[in-house]
Amino acid sequence: MKTLLALCLAVSTSAFAQGGKALTQTYAIDTTATTVVWVGKKVTGQHTGNLSVKSGSLTFLGEEITAGDVVVDMKSLTTTDITDKEMNAKFIGHMTSPDFFDVAKYPESKLVIKSSKKTAKGLEVTGDLTMIGQTRPVTFLATDVKKSDKEVTANANITLNRTLWGLKYGSGSFFKGLGDKAINDDFTLNISIKATK
């Protein structure tokens, strides 16, 4: 009797594990089809540009993201609004310098996703973002999430207060009298992700 009970318990546990495993799906981010557009604003206007994703993955349990990561290559930073070649190079040189993202010392930024929950507008995602050697919690909305057995696509607009990561250059919150040279604390990352099995 005990043997039969143990056998039934083992079969039930196995079925539960297989059922749970069937619900869990992990997708590798397609770095060639995933885009990151950044937007930074200042008193006199704004700058825009691109960043490349190096690697990453998304793990789903049903329709919610339970884990994942996105690694961004900070050396890929470009600007798309400055057409003059010399001015463009000067701008990128400054953005990658210790005044801003200190790319030589911190060549990567990484988002680690911890959890998500469904809302009326999409998936509310929570995680940790490591940038310029510092890690801070972030929460953002993933929209237009479409998932099949083979691939996932989604969009996200993430607004970050750069000063929380110690990036204070040109911030009116820390330096007075900047006038039209003041740069907004917040900048935005517009991300379009494609991930496949």
Structure description:
The protein has 197 residues and is α+β, with helices and mostly antiparallel strands. It has one domain (24-196): Lipocalin. The chain has two helices and nine strands; from the N terminus they run H-E-E-E-E-H-E-E-E-E-E. Mean pLDDT is 91; it is low at 2-20.
Number of separate strands:
9
Can you tell me the number of structural domains? 1
Q: How is the main sheet built?
A: 9 strands, antiparallel
Indicate the radius of gyration in whole angstroms. 21 Å
- Determine the CATH topology: Lipocalin
Q: Note poorly predicted spans.
A: 2-20
Going by CATH, the architecture would be: Beta Barrel
Number of helices: 2
Span between termini: 44 Å
**Overall residue-averaged pLDDT value:** 91
Order of H and E elements: HEEEEHEEEEE
Backbone shape: globular
The percent of residues in helical segments reads 10-25%
Instruction: Report the CATH C-level class.
Output: Mainly Beta
Question: Looking at this structure, what is the CATH superfamily?
Answer: Lipid/polyisoprenoid-binding, YceI-like
Going by helix content, strand content and strand pairing, the class is: alpha+beta
The proportion of strand residues reads over 45%
Protein traits:
single chain; 197 residues; alpha+beta; Lipocalin; nine-stranded antiparallel sheet; 51% strand; globular; disordered N terminus
